[in-house]
Write a structure and sequence with these properties.
With 152 residues, this protein is α+β, with helices and mostly antiparallel strands. It folds into 2 domains: 92 residues, Ribosomal protein S6/Translation elongation factor EF1B (Alpha-Beta Plaits); 37 residues. The chain has a 4-stranded antiparallel β-sheet, covered by helices on one side. It is elongated, with a radius of gyration of 31 Å.
Protein backbone atom coordinates (compact mmCIF):
# COMPACT_ATOMS: atom_id res chain seq x y z
CA UNK A 1 0.00 0.00 0.00
CA UNK A 2 1.24 3.45 -0.92
CA UNK A 3 -0.11 6.86 0.08
CA UNK A 4 -1.68 9.03 -2.65
CA UNK A 5 -3.29 12.44 -2.96
CA UNK A 6 -6.16 12.67 -5.42
CA UNK A 7 -7.26 16.08 -6.66
CA UNK A 8 -10.78 15.95 -8.08
CA UNK A 9 -12.51 18.71 -10.01
CA UNK A 10 -16.28 18.44 -10.25
CA UNK A 11 -18.46 20.53 -12.54
CA UNK A 12 -19.13 24.06 -11.23
CA UNK A 13 -22.89 23.53 -11.07
CA UNK A 14 -22.53 20.86 -8.39
CA UNK A 15 -24.75 21.54 -5.38
CA UNK A 16 -23.73 20.66 -1.82
CA UNK A 17 -25.85 17.52 -1.59
CA UNK A 18 -24.87 16.22 -5.02
CA UNK A 19 -21.22 17.10 -4.30
CA UNK A 20 -21.28 15.03 -1.12
CA UNK A 21 -22.74 12.09 -3.03
CA UNK A 22 -20.08 12.45 -5.72
CA UNK A 23 -17.27 12.56 -3.15
CA UNK A 24 -18.68 9.46 -1.47
CA UNK A 25 -18.80 7.79 -4.89
CA UNK A 26 -15.09 8.57 -5.45
CA UNK A 27 -14.24 7.17 -2.03
CA UNK A 28 -16.30 4.05 -2.72
CA UNK A 29 -14.26 3.41 -5.88
CA UNK A 30 -11.05 3.58 -3.82
CA UNK A 31 -12.33 1.18 -1.18
CA UNK A 32 -13.74 -1.16 -3.86
CA UNK A 33 -10.20 -1.62 -5.18
CA UNK A 34 -8.85 -2.42 -1.71
CA UNK A 35 -7.78 1.09 -0.73
CA UNK A 36 -8.22 2.98 2.51
CA UNK A 37 -9.48 6.57 2.78
CA UNK A 38 -7.37 8.73 5.09
CA UNK A 39 -8.62 12.28 4.66
CA UNK A 40 -11.12 14.22 2.56
CA UNK A 41 -10.99 17.98 2.15
CA UNK A 42 -13.35 20.11 0.07
CA UNK A 43 -11.25 23.01 -1.23
CA UNK A 44 -14.18 24.94 -2.66
CA UNK A 45 -15.32 26.40 -5.95
CA UNK A 46 -12.62 28.04 -8.05
CA UNK A 47 -12.50 29.75 -11.42
CA UNK A 48 -10.21 28.29 -14.06
CA UNK A 49 -7.45 30.41 -15.56
CA UNK A 50 -9.03 29.86 -18.96
CA UNK A 51 -12.25 28.11 -19.97
CA UNK A 52 -11.87 24.36 -20.53
CA UNK A 53 -14.46 22.41 -22.48
CA UNK A 54 -16.84 25.38 -22.24
CA UNK A 55 -16.60 25.38 -18.43
CA UNK A 56 -15.26 28.29 -16.44
CA UNK A 57 -15.19 26.95 -12.87
CA UNK A 58 -15.22 23.81 -10.80
CA UNK A 59 -15.38 22.48 -7.25
CA UNK A 60 -12.05 21.13 -6.04
CA UNK A 61 -11.79 18.21 -3.61
CA UNK A 62 -8.64 16.57 -2.23
CA UNK A 63 -8.75 12.98 -1.02
CA UNK A 64 -5.74 11.30 0.62
CA UNK A 65 -5.79 7.51 0.52
CA UNK A 66 -3.70 4.34 0.67
CA UNK A 67 -3.83 2.06 -2.36
CA UNK A 68 -1.84 -0.68 -4.01
CA UNK A 69 0.24 0.95 -6.81
CA UNK A 70 -1.05 -1.63 -9.32
CA UNK A 71 -4.63 -0.45 -8.70
CA UNK A 72 -4.06 3.21 -9.66
CA UNK A 73 -4.58 2.69 -13.40
CA UNK A 74 -7.84 0.75 -12.94
CA UNK A 75 -9.00 3.48 -10.54
CA UNK A 76 -8.33 6.18 -13.14
CA UNK A 77 -10.13 4.12 -15.77
CA UNK A 78 -13.19 3.89 -13.48
CA UNK A 79 -13.08 7.65 -12.87
CA UNK A 80 -13.18 8.38 -16.61
CA UNK A 81 -16.65 6.81 -16.68
CA UNK A 82 -18.10 9.17 -14.03
CA UNK A 83 -19.98 12.04 -15.70
CA UNK A 84 -19.94 14.61 -12.87
CA UNK A 85 -16.15 14.33 -12.52
CA UNK A 86 -14.48 16.92 -14.74
CA UNK A 87 -10.79 16.23 -14.04
CA UNK A 88 -8.77 14.03 -11.68
CA UNK A 89 -5.09 13.95 -10.81
CA UNK A 90 -3.52 11.34 -8.55
CA UNK A 91 -0.07 11.97 -7.08
CA UNK A 92 2.06 9.71 -4.91
CA UNK A 93 2.89 11.29 -1.55
CA UNK A 94 6.60 11.54 -0.76
CA UNK A 95 6.97 10.72 2.96
CA UNK A 96 10.32 12.55 3.27
CA UNK A 97 8.84 15.76 1.85
CA UNK A 98 5.77 15.42 4.09
CA UNK A 99 7.98 15.04 7.18
CA UNK A 100 10.07 18.07 6.21
CA UNK A 101 6.94 20.18 5.60
CA UNK A 102 5.50 19.16 8.97
CA UNK A 103 8.80 20.09 10.65
CA UNK A 104 8.83 23.49 8.93
CA UNK A 105 5.21 24.13 9.91
CA UNK A 106 5.97 23.31 13.56
CA UNK A 107 8.98 25.65 13.51
CA UNK A 108 6.87 28.42 11.95
CA UNK A 109 4.17 28.02 14.62
CA UNK A 110 6.85 28.20 17.32
CA UNK A 111 8.33 31.39 15.81
CA UNK A 112 4.86 32.97 15.57
CA UNK A 113 4.10 32.07 19.19
CA UNK A 114 7.40 33.58 20.36
CA UNK A 115 6.78 36.74 18.32
CA UNK A 116 3.29 37.08 19.78
CA UNK A 117 4.65 36.60 23.29
CA UNK A 118 7.37 39.22 22.73
CA UNK A 119 4.80 41.64 21.31
CA UNK A 120 2.56 41.11 24.33
CA UNK A 121 5.49 41.71 26.71
CA UNK A 122 6.50 44.85 24.79
CA UNK A 123 2.92 46.15 24.90
CA UNK A 124 2.72 45.48 28.63
CA UNK A 125 6.05 47.24 29.21
CA UNK A 126 4.97 50.19 27.08
CA UNK A 127 1.67 50.38 28.95
CA UNK A 128 3.38 50.60 32.36
CA UNK A 129 5.83 53.20 31.06
CA UNK A 130 3.02 55.35 29.68
CA UNK A 131 1.10 55.14 32.95
CA UNK A 132 4.14 56.29 34.94
CA UNK A 133 4.82 59.20 32.56
CA UNK A 134 1.21 60.44 32.50
CA UNK A 135 0.28 63.47 34.59
CA UNK A 136 -2.12 63.04 37.50
CA UNK A 137 -5.75 63.31 36.44
CA UNK A 138 -6.64 66.21 38.77
CA UNK A 139 -3.68 68.49 37.94
CA UNK A 140 -4.30 71.62 35.88
CA UNK A 141 -1.90 72.33 33.05
CA UNK A 142 0.56 75.18 33.56
CA UNK A 143 0.00 78.26 31.43
CA UNK A 144 2.65 78.74 28.77
CA UNK A 145 5.63 80.79 29.89
CA UNK A 146 5.87 84.29 28.43
CA UNK A 147 9.43 84.56 27.14
CA UNK A 148 9.05 88.25 26.21
CA UNK A 149 8.02 89.44 29.69
CA UNK A 150 11.60 90.50 30.54
CA UNK A 151 11.97 92.70 27.45
CA UNK A 152 9.57 95.40 28.65
Amino acid sequence: MKKYDGLYIFSGQAKDDSLDKSVEKMGAEITRLGGELLETEILGKRTFARPMNKRENGVYVRIRFNLDPLQVTPLLNRYHLVEELFRVQILAVNECVEAKLAQQAAARRLREALAAQQAAEAAAAAGTFEEAAAEPAGAEPEPPADDYADDE
